[in-house]
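REQUEST FORM: STRUCTURE PREDICTION
Request ID: SP-0412
Submitted by: Lab K.M.
Chain count: 1
Length (residues): 238
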Amino acid sequence: MNVSEHHAGGRLIRSRWLGTTRPGQPPLVVVPGLGALGYLHPTIRACAEWTVAFLLDLPGYGSADTAGSPSSLHAVTTAVADWLRVVPREPVLLLGHSTGAQAALHAALAVPERVVGLVLAGPTFPPQARTWGALSVRVARTAVRERPGEIPAVWPEYVRSRGRFLSLLGTGMAARPEDAIGDVTCPLLVLRGSHDAVSPHDWAQRLGAGGTCRTLPGAHNFPFTHPQATSEAVRSLR
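STATUS: Completed
RESULT:
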C-alpha cells in the first residue's frame, strides 16, 4: 500500500492508495468509519483493479503526528473537503463507510464540483438508533454476523485514537443525514449489508430514494468481508 502526505486546510492528511488512473474512470476516494483503516484495505485492493483508489487516513487515527486533531463529524467532514480541494487532479467518486458515509455526504455538499458520484456504504444512524442504548442493541445484533478477522484490522487505529473515536461516534449520532441527502446533485448509490442492523433496509432505502439502493452480502463491515462485490457495485455508479 502506497502512502502520501499532503497539507490541506492547515493540517497534515495522509492517504493510502493503490492503482493507476484509467481513461474514463474517475479516482475513488474512501472515507473510513470511526477512523479505522485496515478493514477497508480489501476493498481498496479490489477497486485498484479498475482505478486509482485512495483511503484517507483521518487526522488523529493512523498517525501519532496528528493525535491532537479534533475528532468529530464536523472535523472529519472539513478534513475530507479540504483534501478534495487540493489533492485530486480531477473530480472523484467519493465513498464513505459507516460514520464515514456521513462525512462523505457533507463533504460532497461542501465541494460538489470535486465529486462526480457519491457512495454511502452502511450509512449511520437511523433515527431509532440515536441513543447509546438503542445503538448498542443494534451493534450486538450485527456483531454476531461479522468475522473475527475484522478485529486485528481495526484495533490498532482504535488504540492509537485513545478513545477519540467515541467523540466521532457521539457527533455522528447527533447528526441528521436525512435532512441533507436531498441536496445531493451527483449520482448517488447507497449500499448496505444484508445482515446489518446498524444500517437497516428501510433507512438505506430512505437515503437512497434520490439514487440507487443495493443490498450486498455480509453485515455492517461488508467492504471487509465482500470486497469484490463492493468494488463491482461502486464501479457501476455513473
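NOTES: Strands lie at 2-8, 11-18, 28-31, 53-57, 92-97, 115-121, 188-193, 212-216.
Reviewed by: T.R.
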